[in-house]
Amino acid sequence: METRRAAPNHETVGELFRKLRMERSLEITDIAQETRIPPETLRAMEADDYSMLPAKAFARGFYGLYAKLLGLNQEEVVQRFSEEYAQDSHGRNKEDASSQSWGEDNISSIAERPSHTVGSIISFSLVVIILVGAGISWYAGYNPAKQISNWLRGFQETVEVVNEPATQANQQVSPAEQSTQQALPQLPEPVEKPATQETKYRLVAEFQQPANITIRLDDAAPEQLSLPAGSIESWQADQHIVLELPIDAPVRLYLNGIIVPLPPAVDGKIIVSIPEYFRE
């Protein structure tokens, strides 16, 4: 994978993450599945909300994983995050609090560390029980391994005796039964169903302000939606997609990962009809 440089100076790391994810038509759940980072943490990273991030040491690892998935320079992204984190007043307070808490926890653990753990006591007890059992067996002349071997040998002989009559009975088949078995038709082997093809069109819309829209997919009935600011919607269709927007709706569209410019308004509405819009 080609490694790209991080965001320019005027763009934060969170804004860069969000822009690249939208360009590739990726959902937050897709990133969470690949990086094992919780979705709420990913949203906080993209929003530069340091109050929702874990301790700085863990956050640096999360930023490195996200940068690696997007093909960015991990070291440069982590360095940029550290600089932005230090400039944020909440980040400084949280870092100081985390350092103080870490020190108090370590001092407490050092002062209260037990001399013997529960695991060591249990392990020592098991060793003692095994040694005592071995000594008793040696003194009494009892060999557990030999007894188990004899029992297994007797069990195997019993199974062979029980199965032998049944095998002989299966071998003695009358001519009529043989002809019946030969006349039975052979069942056809199951035919695997072809894999379902992926949808042809995938439209992603990012709304910066609240908006009332109408969406119609293929032959389904139109659906009216009231979306809040900052919402991201994704639709898929095999034949066509018709999206109706208000004229003043600040929205960014991506079709199969490519930015789609908005067409001019008609009768006070913006109508995006795919694929007809690209044939004009």
How is this structure best summarized?
By secondary structure, this protein is α+β, with helices and mostly antiparallel strands. The protein has helices spanning 13-23, 28-35, 39-46, 56-69, 74-87, 89-111, 118-140, 144-171, 175-183, 276-279; strands at residues 201-207, 211-217, 223-227, 232-237, 241-246, 251-255, 258-260, 269-274.
Search tags:
alpha+beta; 434 Repressor (Amino-terminal Domain); four-stranded antiparallel sheet; 10 helices; 51% helix
Question: How is this structure best described in words?
Answer:
The chain is elongated and about 100 Å long. With 280 residues, the chain is α+β, with helices and mostly antiparallel strands. The protein has a four-stranded antiparallel β-sheet with strand order 4-1-6-7, with no helix packed on it. It has a four-stranded antiparallel β-sheet with strand order 3-2-5-8. Helix 4 crosses helix 5 (74-87). The protein is built from ten helices and eight strands. Among the domains are: 13-98, 434 Repressor (Amino-terminal Domain); 201-279. It has helices spanning 13-23, 28-35, 39-46, 56-69, 74-87, 89-111, 118-140, 144-171, 175-183, 276-279; strands spanning 201-207, 211-217, 223-227, 232-237, 241-246, 251-255, 258-260, 269-274.
